[in-house]
Amino acid sequence: MEDINENSLLTKLTGALKVERDDTFWDKLLDFEFEYPQDREASMLLDVSVEKLCRRITTNNHVTGNFTTLVGVLIFHAQDLQINPTKQKSHDDCQKVCNVMLLVRCICKYLVDNLPEQELVRQFNTLPSCEGTRTVFEEYLLTIVTLISTLDVQSATYYIHLEAVNSLIVLLSVQMQELKPTTSSVIHLSVMNSKCSEVSKAVVQKLFQNYIKNHLLPSEDDGSDFLSRTLSTVWSIFGVGPDSDLDALRPLASHSLLLLLILSNQLTKDRNPYREIMFNCRGQSSTLKDDEFRRGQNALKQNDSNLVLNFNSLFRACCRDIPNDQTILLLYLMLHQNEAFMSHMLKRDDLGNLVLPLLEILYNAEERSSHLIYMTLIVLLILSQEEDFSVQMHRTMLHEVEWYKDRKLHGISLGGVLCLVFIRMIQHNIFKMRDKYLHSNCLAALANMSSHFYNLSSIVCDRFVRVLTNLLKRYSLVLKKLKSFEEDLNEETDGLNEEFSDSNVLEEVIRMFLEIINSCIITKLKDNPNLIYALLHEKETMERLQKHPKFQDIMFNINLVLTYFNTRLADQNEDTYSVEAVHLVINKELQRMPVNEFKKFPDLRFKYVEEDQPEEFFVPYIWSIVYKSSNLFWDLQKVALFQFNSVPKDSDT
């Protein structure tokens, strides 16, 4: 890299003399080999090494137009490649296109990092465009999105696709540098509203396909040895993260997903063709072969405005890539906004392949970033809103759950594991983290499932009642402290306010747990004998709750159940009862217990509602994911977006 500033061709390109378009210089410039950096530190060194050259061409371009001419060379070679199928199979021709795209992207990266957006665009337009109705910048954007949307991914074109995706990510990253609305960004508006929007459907389709197919890097055995040797490491600048060997094998898949997320989370209240297409796509059978799928897509272009995706393959891809932040975010967007995808998910009999890894994320919450925890929890909350989901979860039996270390789980339903993980998170949060958002969503998901609890295991029922006991103890302790504060008027008000807040939170959580148990009793009492046993076993806790004025109303049905079964047990005239004997009485009397005396309560149904301005959360979150996983170097001192929003650390992945 230390010799790069001495390269005669690059010196001429960036110098003060204009290079004409028909000069043979351009062919010589594009014929090069380069040892590319393989990690973020090396990519930082590349940025530093080319900074002087980029500064020179930026300074001189207003006079020479050499950068604009370089962009024109890229457009010419890209268009020539698109209309010549033979060249698309030629590694030499594809290498030339890759090289010119790389040169332009390196300069664009410098422009994004160091110039205002308006000046960046002017650097493209120092010379008139060959296309009279569009500027050079607009023509460049159209060329990039057209390459993504029309060029087939094969051995020779793989790196062109990857470079096109990365080039668009770099340009759109102006959003990290300038704190202004997307509606004021020339680059973003050009991608959304100009000629680019006409191919938005094909772009979304190709980005989805790239992610689903998870193409590996072309191997040396397929004739791409030169590209593999000289170019494979360049994609580490954008495509390979340090945390997973698998990521190193699929940069196109991971970066296609990143670009899809960037595009779909802009202008959420205005017209965004990428977002509309993504949220209105519908499913297709997985039995079609690739050529049949392609023919079907061609027919759809004429007969249907909605994109067709293979939801089976998309489901498998998501299962493959959990617990990546970008995969969880994709799941959130599709489940929350795409009714067809939600419908497809609810019909699957292997939904546990997705749910179990999501629960593992929550179980190991202390090892994950807060953003990932929240998004995973919201995904499960959205699923819990659907009755079919709850029914399937409680009818799906598991042999064991290896990652659950609290105790061995055998013969438990997937719904039971959901309950255990949510209860565990609630208890941990109440006693340590005190994040109201987190436990509120856990409780909401449990409430949504409560009317479908089926044959809950003794472990789950015991945890339900034991957490109530612990919460009640904590609540009583807080109330004592509040009384002490009131008696001692000299105490500081800060402590009083904190204890008062704790008492309100604990009261809300206890009541919500009781409402969940009450909902199960009203709708599924006869299917949950273990819950009755657990309630009877914690007799003291139940009596204290019954006497408490804040909970007497919601305890009405629970008290009816306890009274009924305590009476039946007393009728047995036994001094002591074994566990088996109590269960025998419960199972015998369950079918006889009159339920017409139960007091009716409103159904427990909670629905996730997105914030009015979702970009305020999702835009910084998405760019933090890009920052972490793309392995491209951004100087955090220059990233204005992260000055006001936290960036998850690498160790939080």
Write the layout of secondary structure elements.
Blueprint: H1 8-14, H2 25-29, H3 40-64, H4 66-82, H5 85-88, H6 91-114, H7 117-124, H8 136-150, H9 158-172, H10 174-177, H11 186-193, H12 200-213, H13 225-231, H14 236-239, H15 245-249, H16 251-264, H17 273-280, E1 282-283, H18 290-303, E2 308-309, H19 311-321, H20 325-337, H21 339-347, H22 352-363, H23 370-384, H24 387-395, E3 397-400, E4 410-413, H25 414-433, H26 436-450, H27 458-487, H28 493-524, H29 529-537, H30 539-547, H31 556-570, H32 579-590, H33 615-629
Parallel strand pairs: 1-2
Antiparallel strand pairs: 3-4
Helix pairs in contact: 1-3, 3-6, 4-6, 4-8, 6-9, 8-9, 8-12, 9-16, 12-16, 12-17, 12-19, 16-20, 20-23, 22-23, 22-25, 23-26, 24-25, 25-26, 25-27, 26-28, 27-28, 27-29, 29-32
Description of the structure:
By secondary structure, this protein is mostly helical. It has helices at residues 8-14, 25-29, 40-64, 66-82, 85-88, 91-114, 117-124, 136-150, 158-172, 174-177, 186-193, 200-213, 225-231, 236-239, 245-249, 251-264, 273-280, 290-303, 311-321, 325-337, 339-347, 352-363, 370-384, 387-395, 414-433, 436-450, 458-487, 493-524, 529-537, 539-547, 556-570, 579-590, 615-629; strands at residues 282-283, 308-309, 397-400, 410-413. The chain has two domains: 4-269 and 613-639, no CATH class; 386-590. The chain contains 33 helices and four strands. The strands form two sheets. It has a two-stranded parallel ribbon. Strands 3-4 form a two-stranded antiparallel ribbon. Mean pLDDT is 86; it is low at 223-249, 286-293, 299-303 and 648-653.
